[in-house]
């Protein structure tokens, strides 16, 4: 089952509550948190996440592109996030952090930047509910999709299958109607889409269209047999 997570990084920040409602058919609302340290951009923090949670029934998927997620990630669970993603490059103790996020009641997710290989973290996979493969360099929306990440998505899907895990595999960066099928074929089943949704005339229709594209490919993908 393909899941579409519109990224509010591409929404109108002056109308966040309305923008959240415009995609209420989405599976999750993806919230990019940037601290101007881990990435060269500054977005929003805990108070906005808390306010967004009250403004929409769509669960919040918070992607923390921040330093010291070990300290800050639990606060996003307390603010109402249903899923919290930390970057392994920034985490001091990723297993402990994943367990703390889960213990507080949210799904624990770990993100990898494009240059970070998956193989060193194979043993961590059972501690996670989702793994995020970045398909652009984190920090800015609207970047072009990096095709060179497709083999990494495939290798990650193979590792998930090898261990028999019910682990979601998310991709984020340049996902659109032109790239989503390649990601689904490679093994992704959760798709973050920013400008492809919020740049559309009808964001809700864009979500439905992207989901239909991904599910059509997934139905025929070898990795998804019995998935």
Kindly summarize this structure in a few lines.
The chain is built from eight helices and eight strands.
Q: What do you see in this structure?
A:
Helix content is 34%, strand content 18%. The protein is an alpha/beta fold. Helix 3 (69-78) runs parallel beside helix 4 (94-103) and helix 6 (180-186) runs parallel beside helix 8 (203-220). The longest helix has 18 residues, at 203-220. The termini are close together. Keywords: Carbohydrate metabolism, Isomerase, Metal-binding. Catalyzes the reversible epimerization of D-ribulose 5-phosphate to D-xylulose 5-phosphate. It catalyses: D-ribulose 5-phosphate = D-xylulose 5-phosphate. The active site is at 32 (proton acceptor), 172 (proton donor). Pathway: Carbohydrate degradation.
């Amino acid at each position: 089952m393909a899941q579409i997570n519109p990224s509010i990084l591409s929404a109108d920040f002056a109308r966040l509550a309305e923008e959240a409602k415009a995609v209420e058919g989405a599976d999750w609302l993806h919230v990019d948190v940037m601290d101007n340290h881990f990435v060269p951009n500054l977005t929003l923090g805990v108070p906005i996440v808390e306010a967004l949670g009250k403004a929409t029934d769509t669960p919040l998927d918070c992607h923390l592109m921040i330093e010291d997620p070990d300290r800050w990630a639990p606060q996003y669970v307390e603010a109402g996030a249903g899923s919290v993603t930390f970057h392994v490059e920034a985490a001091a103790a990723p297993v402990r952090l994943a367990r703390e996020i889960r213990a507080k009641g949210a799904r624990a997710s770990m993100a990898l930047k494009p240059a970070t290989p998956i193989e060193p973290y194979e043993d961590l996979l059972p501690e996670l509910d989702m793994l995020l493969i970045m398909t652009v360099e984190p920090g800015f929306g609207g970047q072009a999709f990096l095709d060179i990440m497709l083999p990494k998505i495939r290798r990650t899907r193979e590792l998930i299958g090898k261990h028999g895990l019910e682990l979601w595999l998310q991709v984020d960066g340049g996902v659109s109607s032109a790239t989503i099928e390649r990601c689904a074929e490679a093994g992704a089943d959760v798709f973050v889409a920013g400008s492809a949704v919020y740049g559309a005339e009808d964001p809700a229709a864009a979500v439905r269209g992207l989901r239909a594209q991904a599910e059509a490919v997934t139905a025929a993908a070898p990795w998804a047999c019995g998935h």
